[in-house]
């Protein structure tokens, strides 16, 4: 039997609760047949695996697993985490997220961290300008757009109608009326967006920039609420994206993110196209026609409240 770690003997804490939420979400979405269990006749009332089935597969006691899932046990050993990951067939990113949640729970900090600064250093703004005509922007861990070049803002059609402090790519995907038309694969985009937010929020559950955004989207978007409940987690991967842009037509671009030194959680996002292609011509047109100054008017619909 795997070691069960050292019980805390304390009550529920937010970090332990987050660890338990992740385990429960993965358990209820893992069918018995996926892990080689034979399902007997009759209706199963529990979606996915039962707690006792997962505990048995992982080689830990049922009582201990229940404490983990309820957030009352916050110091599982590495061997327990690895056993649970194997039992649930977690992929590498999910396994790493489980480790990060456990590490966060073990070093519980009673005071929530302050909201990160929105200030962007001048040399980064110069860097964005040097990337033209490629759309580029600086984005925070909670997907706030903090700085951009003309194409970086104009690429997300209608985003410039929102005040600067409201410009957030997750908020845009779920609440802006133009987002569904801009992305032909909108369902895939929102799934990846929520999974990335889940991964970040799981290791900083009390961070105000994340809790404010998630609270707003849970209240305003049933699509977001449904995906949030699933607790899928994934990191961002370089990928091609297709935009049906109202100004320059349909374009397919390659996206890349680069983490910034000295600014945890921030990255530069940039989109490129091969020179001489119609997609690159469209980027040139977007850059030339994009407003060179930031408009700060509110959207003609109902703007989201401030963070």
Distance between the termini: 48 Å
Mean pLDDT: 84
- Poorly predicted sequence stretches spanning 5 or more consecutive residues: 1-12, 294-303
Largest sheet: 5 strands, antiparallel
Q: Helix share of residues?
A: 40-55%
Within the largest sheet, what's the order of strands?
Answer: 2-1-5-4-3
Strand portion: 5-15%
Classify the secondary structure makeup into a structural class.
alpha+beta
Number of helices: 13
Task: Summarize the structure in short.
By secondary structure, the protein is an alpha+beta fold. The chain is 44% helix and 10% strand.
Descriptive overview:
It is a single chain. By secondary structure, the chain is an alpha+beta fold. It has 13 helices and five strands. The chain has helices at 14-28, 51-58, 62-69, 78-88, 92-106, 122-130, 150-154, 169-175, 179-182, 186-203, 208-220, 222-230, 278-289, and strands at 136-139, 145-148, 239-245, 249-259, 267-272. Strands 2-1-5-4-3 form a five-stranded antiparallel β-sheet. Strand 3 and strand 4 form a beta hairpin. Helix 1 (14-28) packs antiparallel against helix 5 (92-106), helix 2 crosses helix 3 and helix 4 (78-88) packs antiparallel against helix 5. It is elongated. Residues 1-12 and 294-303 have low confidence and may be disordered.
List the helices and strands and how they pair.
Elements: H1 14-28, H2 51-58, H3 62-69, H4 78-88, H5 92-106, H6 122-130, E1 136-139, E2 145-148, H7 150-154, H8 169-175, H9 179-182, H10 186-203, H11 208-220, H12 222-230, E3 239-245, E4 249-259, E5 267-272, H13 278-289
Antiparallel strand pairs: 1-2, 1-5, 3-4, 4-5
Helix pairs in contact: 1-5, 2-3, 2-4, 4-5, 10-12, 11-12
